[in-house]
Amino acid sequence: MAGASTGNLLWLRRLAVVTGALLIAWQALQLHLADNATRLALNAEGEAFASYLDTALWWDPSQPRALEARAQALLEQPDEDLAPGDLDAARALLQRAIAVEPARGNALALLALTEQRAGGSGAEAAKLADRLAPVHPRVQRNLARYYLVEQELGRAVSHIARAMVGQRSSVREYYPLLMEVAADPEAREVLLAIAADPRPFPWWNGFFAHVADKAENLDALRGLVALRDASSALPLQEYERNRFINRLRREGLVSEAYLYWVNGLSKEQLAYLGYLYDGGFEQPFANDSGFGWVARPPQKSGIRITRGDTYGASNDSALRLSFRGRQVRFSHVYQHIFLGPGNYRVSGRARPDQLQTRRGLQWRLYCSSGSGGVLGESELFSGAGDWRTFEFDVSVPAECSGQVLRLYSAGSRDVDHELNGAIWFDDMQIGLLR
User: Which helix H or strand E contains 21, and what residues bound it?
Assistant: First the structure.
């Protein structure tokens, strides 16, 4: 009898262990099926979304993501479509989700929106959501919605900024709103904390470009530039300066663009200022949107554009261009300039160095803003020889508010643009004729 009793006890213990294991496995299966249905719901729409949520909550009535998703679906309805008990239902769903997972920041953010929409206060829930998920994009987007309704623009912009860091796809949604803020002198101060040092916000350059390209007027762009100019942590960057100058030039505000560019020059750079900047090629090529030299040969063209010393060069520096016989319509050295109405003389020195070409290279000055057309051009340069002076006169009309001096390969046929050899230029200048 004792042996039988012992055997029964062992059997019962084994049964209990197996039963417990089965229960644990069943619970794990329930949780897995609920999680999977929730995941499918979050990637579905319409009836499929609702069906998957029903399945998830059937398997696990406390699945926090499913509870949150159902509450959010209720909150996304416009006011006129809300049933009398929808806000109460959303609140109950969110409270259940938070009870299961107290650190669930988005459920708290949605609870704040629910209380706000019901006419109550969601401030505490919003603050807690931010503390729990300070960089989570979905939480930050919902907090931005909350504070926009509360008309707390500074807080809303702070949450928008963080949401765009975490979710780059949302930037286009927020650009127009931030552009409106930048255009409003009374509101733009809320952007100061971001503009003071945009490095933590990788969307900033895209936003600046959006404003520079899309703003209907210059208020927003000028506002952003003013905020950035005031920064001591990170001064206005070349990318931003170029965008600003390009937009000013596009609007025909060449004088404003020129003055802004001049004000950004260093004391050393100001020494090279004239109607033509750095005509002796003493400074590195600017290669930007300002009023300095741009020298950008096409890739794999065999063309090299450099500054260097050669015999007869003034101040040990001159412009050198070399070609390798490929057909390239050359126009890749130029400078934007700003001349008022009047008569001017463009001059310089050239030294061709075995430059073989059917036609030659030629400097041209033309209008780039206001009226169009070529104002004047130099002689053609080719062959070989010592340094020689060249000049040509131009008359700038009042309607020509901006100009470009550019070096071209002359000719209308492709074969005319096959150049081989080199050429030097130095002592370029533009003088006003009295």
Answer: helix 2-42
Neighbour-count burial for 39-61, b at 16+ CB within 10 Å, e otherwise: ebbeeeeeeebeebbebbbebbe
CA triple 205-206-207, angle to 5 deg = 90
CA 134, 138, 142, 144 dihedral sign is: positive
In this structure, which amino acid lies at residue 121?
A: S
Contacts of 47 (CB under 8 A, 6+ apart): none
Closest CA to 249 of 404, 369, 400, 399: 369
Using a cut of 0.90, tell me whether the model's pTM lies above it: no
Architecture per CATH, domain 293-432, reads as Sandwich (2.60)
DSSP state of 382: -
- 147 Cβ partners below 8 Å, 6+ apart? 126, 153, 155, 156, 159
Architecture of domain 26-263: Alpha Horseshoe (1.25)
256-259 long-range CB contacts below 8 Å, 24 or more apart? 257/338, 258/291, 258/338
294-308 pLDDT tens trace? 999 988 888 999 999
